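Please discuss these two lines.
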Amino acid sequence: MSTEDENDLIFKALSHRTRRQICDLLKVEPRTTGMLCALMPALDRCTVMQHLGVLEEAGLVVAERRGRERWNHLDALPIHAIHERWIGPYAAYATSMLSRLRNRVEQPVT
């Protein structure tokens, strides 16, 4: 799969607010599917599992089986890669501009 196809899957996965909410919950700590269902009472278990499937396909969630439990872990590396591609260069530019501005402001007036 190409990088662009992988990025499409990530953006698609993050486009839904429920999946972003699941990522936020998993950012705090890994959780079982049952724990996620308890934290999202408006959704039935099947719907939560479908959302987890989309996140897993995009590489944002890694599932680990422990007996009968499925522990879901957030994998932030795909999000970090998108940050590096889309935000990193602009953040570096903005930091550079702020540094130059500070240097100009702090220069003694002659």
In short: The chain has a mean pLDDT of 91. The two ends are 60 Å apart (CA to CA). The first strand starts at residue 31 and ends at 32. Strands lie at 31-32, 61-66, 69-74.
